[in-house]
C-alpha cells in the first residue's frame, strides 16, 4: 500500500511534537513499524522548541484558570457594594491604572533613548555663541547642535538611568538581596618600643 505525502507530513509533524507511535498510527493509518523505519531512515527529530510551546500553553491555561477564579471572587466582592461605591471604586481604579500606564510608557521610551545613545556612542549638546554686529552694536546668538562622543560620566549617568528604568518596568528587583559580611580578623596587638636618647 502506497502512503501519500500528506499522511507522511502529518505523521512527521505528530512525531516532532512527541506524540507516541500508537497515536500517530491511529491518526494516519500508517503502521507503527513503517513509521519507525521512516523515522530512522530520514532521522526525524523531536523538536524541543515545538514541545516547549505545549508546556507554555499548559502553563498559560493554568494561569488563566487562576485568573478566572480571582475574577469570580472579585465579582462576588463587588456585588456587595452599592452603586455609588462601585462608581467611586471604578474611578479610583481607572486613575491608578492610567498613572501606571503613563509611567510605564515614559520609562520604556526613556530606556529606548538611552539605548540609542549607547549604540551611537554619541550625545547631542547645544553650543551657544554670540556674533557681534559692529555696525549696529548688537549681538546675534547662534545655537548649534553638535554630536560629541560619550564620556565616562555619561556612561555612569546612563547606567544609573537604565537601572531606575529597569526597576520602574519591574525587570529588576527594587532592592538587592541582603548580604551579611562577617569579619573574622583577629585583633592585632601592636607593641610600642620606646627609645630614649641622652
Structure description:
It is built from 6 helices and 2 strands. The chain is an alpha+beta fold. It has a domain at 5-46. The chain has a two-stranded antiparallel sheet with strand order 1-2. Strand 1 (122-133) and strand 2 form a beta hairpin. The model has no long low-confidence stretch (mean pLDDT 80).
Beta-strand residue percentage: 5-15%
Low-confidence stretches: none
Shape: extended
The chain-level mean pLDDT equals 80
Counted by DSSP, the helix tally is 6
Percent range of helical residues = 55-70%
Structural class: alpha+beta
The overall strand count is: 2
| Largest sheet features | 2 strands, antiparallel
The helix/strand order is: HHHHHEEH
Main β-sheet, spatial strand arrangement:
1-2
Distance between the terminal alpha carbons, to the nearest Å?
A: 121 Å
Give me the Rg, rounded.
Answer: 35 Å
Q: What's the gist of this structure?
A:
By secondary structure, the chain is of the alpha+beta class. Helices cover 60% and strands 12% of the residues.
Topology, element by element:
Blueprint (H helix, E strand, L loop, with lengths): L4 H12 L4 H8 L3 H11 L5 H32 L3 H38 L1 E12 L4 E12 L2 H17 L30
Antiparallel strand pairs: 1-2
Features:
single chain, 198 residues, 2 strands, 60% helix, 6 helices, two-stranded antiparallel sheet, extended, alpha+beta
Amino acid at each position: 500500500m502506497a502512503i501519500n505525502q500528506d499522511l507522511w507530513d502529518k505523521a512527521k509533524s505528530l512525531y516532532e511534537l512527541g506524540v507516541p507511535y500508537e497515536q500517530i498510527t491511529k491518526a494516519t493509518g500508517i503502521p507503527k513499524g513503517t513509521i519507525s523505519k521512516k523515522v530512522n531512515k530520514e532521522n526525524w527529530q523531536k523538536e524541543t522548541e515545538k514541545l516547549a510551546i505545549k508546556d507554555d500553553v499548559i502553563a498559560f491555561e493554568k494561569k488563566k484558570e487562576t485568573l478566572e477564579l480571582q475574577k469570580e471572587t472579585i465579582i462576588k466582592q463587588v456585588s456587595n457594594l452599592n452603586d455609588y461605591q462601585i462608581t467611586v471604586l471604578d474611578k479610583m481604579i481607572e486613575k491608578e491604572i492610567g498613572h501606571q500606564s503613563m509611567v510605564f510608557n515614559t520609562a520604556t521610551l526613556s530606556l529606548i533613548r538611552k539605548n540609542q545613545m549607547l549604540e551611537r556612542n554619541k550625545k547631542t549638546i547645544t553650543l551657544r555663541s554670540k556674533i557681534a554686529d559692529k555696525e549696529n552694536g548688537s549681538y546675534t546668538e547662534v545655537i548649534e547642535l553638535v554630536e560629541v562622543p560619550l564620556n565616562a560620566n555619561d556612561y555612569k549617568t546612563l547606567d544609573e538611568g537604565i537601572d531606575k528604568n529597569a526597576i520602574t518596568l519591574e525587570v529588576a528587583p527594587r532592592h538587592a538581596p541582603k548580604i551579611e559580611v562577617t569579619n573574622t580578623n583577629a585583633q592585632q596587638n601592636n607593641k610600642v618600643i620606646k627609645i630614649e636618647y641622652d
